[in-house]
Amino acid sequence: MRLLDRSRTAISSILATSLVLCVTQASAQNPPGRAQGERPAPAPAGAAPAPAGAAQAPAGAAPAPAGAAPAAAAPAGAAPAAPGAATAAPAAPGATPGAPDPGTPPAGDAAAEAFVEPDPNVVTRDDLQGLVTDLENFKFQWQRERDLHTALSTRSLLVGGVIQARIGWTEQPVNTATSNDRKVTFDTGAATLTFNGILYKDYEEGRNLTYSVRFGASPQQASNNSFLNLLDAQLAYSVLPTLAPEDWVLQVTLGQQLLPFGLEVPASEELKPVITNAQFTTKLGLNRRDLGLIVRGDVLPQVDYGYNYRAPLFAYAIGIINGSGPNTPDDNSEKDIIGRLAFTVPSDYNSLLRQITLGGSAYIGWQNTFLKDEKKTLSGKGVKRRFGGDVYYNHYPIGVTYEFIYGQDDVTLGTTAEDPRKTRQTSLSHVATFFYNWGEQFLRGYRNQGRYDDWWPKTYQPFLRVDLFDPSTEVQENRVDVYTLGFNVFFAETTKFQLNINRRDDRTSTEGAKHEVLTQLQGAF
Questions:
Q1: Quick one: pLDDT at residue 32?
Q2: Beta bridge mates, 336
Q3: I need a surface site. Which of 248, 272, 308, 462 has the fewest CB within 10 A?
Q4: Contacts of residue 147, Cβ cutoff 8 Å, sequence gap at least 6
């Protein structure tokens, strides 16, 4: 939208400037009082100046030769010759009377000297009128195309989204209430639609007020229905200036949003390297969006303009949320607190220590507890705590990430209010990912190359992930281990192909370890 308006303004300015230059050139070439192609006749050498009070010769008339007798008076009743008119030359032998040769200059030495052919580079009035007409036609056509083929909004708007098409195979047949011996299935991993924009733009200091709305559907996580749910709905205001990369960042976000906990939880769908999420994100309820107020920022950034690199020494986030999940009001009288602090090792861009980040996260909250009876009777509330540490190292072409999560949850194991058997369960999770890249997609110099087609550099990324989750350390042999061998191909600007081979070992299952293969094509727009 803004690009069309700016292009229209720029083209109009160029045409208007061209019109002014043409008019100026025409005025310089043809001063007032002189006809097109006419130039003043020079006075003969040695000619005496006209006496005072003498009548001026008509414009364009040839001067009389020195010593010539005065011209005879015109006969009575004869019409005077037009100013600057040349005397007709005698017709050439064989020529049609009254049809002068257009390439022959007017007869007479003085008239021939005064005649000049029109300069083809001089702008005429007809040329100016044609330019004005073309400009009006262009303005009409531009406005028509904009009205017919451009979506309009009150404020700036950027529309985007993600589509994930997936094929899955499992070694052991899946049997549920609605499926029988299923091994291979096609499904949609996720489909999201995003609207981003600026509500207030501060041109002086960059203290902008932005908005973000995201809708999404994940059919394989629902029953037989697929609904487009509200994922993100937030307003963010930059408290500090944001025009220079050296500026510190302080942003306040209000609304429904991702939680700033660890590495994988705040990553959106299009940025996750593995097809399936880490186990702790879903089993500990951290992957859910929540409603609240979160302050994010960083301090002491290190900037390298040559490589377009910015790494703050400290990045932080702290907020207060409902703790009851997305699109849901708070279900108890307590508010949950979440926070994160990350430290990046200061180093040069070419140093091996570049992009080593150590982070820590904490979640302190409360949750309702329910009895184990058929009605799931509410029995009170208990603690919900999450603590995590993470290490991130991404120095092209290698990368390593590691997350450690420790959780505490109060639950009731009883079936009656008189004997709720309230207890505290402790969970533990380890997630490590090792990957290697080769290709040019993540090198800015290659991405900036101009090509005639929709060219984009390609990158290939094999990786290995180890995901261990123990839902209750008090119970023996209930850990679930998932090992993933994967391969990602980034073959377009916003498109990638993913292949995951999983080995899932559930200690509580009598069937033992099972294998599955997932392939996914993800495209963003």
A1: 46
A2: 321
A3: 308
A4: none
Alpha-carbon gap, residue 84 to 80, rounded angstroms? 12
Range in 6-10, 52-56, 228-232, 382-386 with the lowest mean pLDDT: 52-56
Please give the pLDDT value at position 25: 54
DSSP bridge pairs for 184 = 169
Domains of the chain: 2-30+122-147 (no CATH), 160-524 (2.40.160.10)
CA dihedral sign of residues 22, 25, 26, 27:
positive
Name which residue leads in pLDDT, 226 or 417.
Answer: 417
| Of the candidates 271, 234, 258, the residue with the CA atom closest to the CA atom of residue 494 | 271
Q: Where are the alpha helices (DSSP H) in 30-164?
A: 109-114, 125-149
Distance CA 264, CA 386 (A): 14
Contacts of 135 (CB under 8 A, 6+ apart): 12, 15, 16, 19
Q: Is the bond leading into 397 cis (omega within 30 degrees of zero)?
A: yes
- Sign of the CA dihedral 512, 513, 519, 523? positive
Range from 22-31, 49-58, 278-287 that averages highest in pLDDT: 278-287
C-alpha to C-alpha distance for 116 and 113, rounded to whole angstroms: 8
Kindly state the helix (H) or strand (E) to which residue 388 belongs, with its residue range: strand 378-395
Running DSSP on this structure, what letter comes out for residue 215? Answer: E
* Residues of the chain by 3-state class (helix, strand, coil), percent to 5: 15, 40, 45
Q: Which helix (H) or strand (E) holds 17?
A: helix 2-29
pLDDT tens digits for 432-473?
Answer: 999 999 887 666 555 556 566 667 778 999 999 999 999 999
Degrees to nearest 5, angle at CA 303 with 297 and 305: 135
- What six digits make up the tokens of 435? 């990957």
Distance separating alpha carbons of residues 400 and 273, to the nearest angstrom:
12
Which of the four pLDDT bands, split at 50, 70 and 90, describes residue 309? Answer: confident
Mean pLDDT of 242-252: 95
Query: What are phi and psi for residue 306, nearest 5 degrees?
Result: -65, -35
What is the tens place of the pLDDT at every residue in 167-179?
Answer: 999 988 887 777 7
* 104/85 Cα distance (integer angstroms): 15
Strand partners, 406: 387, 428
Distance from C-alpha of 274 to C-alpha of 432, rounded to nearest angstrom:
12
Residue 525: which of 76, 43, 267, 192 has the closest Cα?
Answer: 192
Average pLDDT score over residue span 409-417: 89
User: Could you report the per-residue pLDDT of 219-235, keeping only the tens digit for each?
Assistant: 655 445 557 889 999 99
**pLDDT at 122 (0 to 100):** 81
State how far the Cα of 480 lies from the Cα of 470, in Å rounded to an integer. Answer: 6
Quote the tokens at residue 395: 């120095």
Measured CA to CA, the distance from residue 281 to residue 289 in angstroms comes to 11
